[in-house]
Specification:
- Its cofactor is Mn(2+).
- One of its GO terms (biological process) is diaminopimelate biosynthetic process.
- This is Amidohydrolase.
- GO terms for molecular function: metal ion binding; N-acetyldiaminopimelate deacetylase activity.
- The protein has 397 residues and is of the alpha/beta class.
- The chain is built from eleven helices and 16 strands.
- The strands form four sheets. Strands 1-2-4-3-5-16-6-15 form an eight-stranded mixed β-sheet, sandwiched between helices. Strands 10-12-8-13 form a four-stranded antiparallel β-sheet, with helices on one face.
- Helix 4 links the parallel strand 3 and strand 4.
- The protein is elongated and about 80 Å long.
Length: 397
Amino acid sequence: MQLIESILADSAAATALRRDLHAHPELCFHETRTSDVIANALTEWGIPIHRGLGTTGVVGIVKGTRGESPRAVGLRADIDALPITEHNTFPHASRHAGKMHACGHDGHTAMLLAAAKHFSKHRDFAGTVYLVFQPAEEGGGGAREMIKDGIFEKFPMEAIFGAHNWPGLKVGQFAVCDGPCFASSNEFRITIRGKGSHAAMPHLGVDPVPVACQMVQAFQTIISRNKRPLEAGVISVTMIHTGEATNVVPDSCEIQGTVRTFTVELLDLIERRMRDVASHTCAAFEATCEFEFRRNYPPTINHDAETAFARQVMADVVGPENVQEFEPTMGAEDFSFFLQAKPGCYFVIGNGEGEHRIGGHGLGPCMLHNPSYDFNDDLIPLGATLWVRMAEAWLAR
């Protein structure tokens, strides 16, 4: 493993910064203190900044010292926390009830800041490195908002790279794959309108409950019979709400859930078929329905050339035997918006199995979005080293 000495020597300070961020989590588009910490650190290190993209985003601008060059590359870290009550009780546990860095964005921020501190003293390259600290990954679409605010016009970069820690993957390992790596995230809400009646006289009404049951079952035939078997897609009905009393047939029933796909084409098919199934099922039972379908995050699709480049840099840092093939997940990631607009690659860095957690951690597993999670600080020097080597290699191509 080829870690940069200056980053390794500064790991205690980077760890302290990460734990400070963990203790003060902020939710999407409200990362005011977090943005201040980032901006103050970059400014202290002599790195110019731009604030306000995506409401609370920060962009650091690192110019090389080998002369002028129009070439530029972007490195991204997400900065927001989750609306989760932390179960950990160690000293750096969240001080804000109902808010927690349960996904490691505090660690992602610390890794990029550690790279930034190295860049502040070592800029032996021609071109520009843009350090993108993005808000609101957790449901807010902060990447989309930064694009709307003109990030790629203000900071014209050739490509952008992003990373996420990955529990279960060994510390010292990376994983990446070509093409789709994270799925699209979409939500639906269906309101079935029937006609209420006494439960003893159901013939006088139109019961929406059996309509909902039929509909939920029929949705799965879209997965098993409408899409190609080799395509990946998931329809999950996660909520059914209806009724107020045991002796009353309700007059409406609401179904909610999510749809995940790796392609927009399959998503189009699923949405169309769900709409047809919902309306025709209701018609068969003499009910009506209101169908809402919201597309949140598109699939995260890596670009081939940039993925090959990232894989090579990882191999140079940790050895090819420690660069694994990432198995695509049906989870979602709003780095997808960046990859729709620019070439790039999204990859993961191993967070281990949780043995790094100090006394006072919760009893749950060290998994993402778990109240017992904590980022592994041993990743900071490795992640920062990779960011530096990736930027240097890109600009040297």
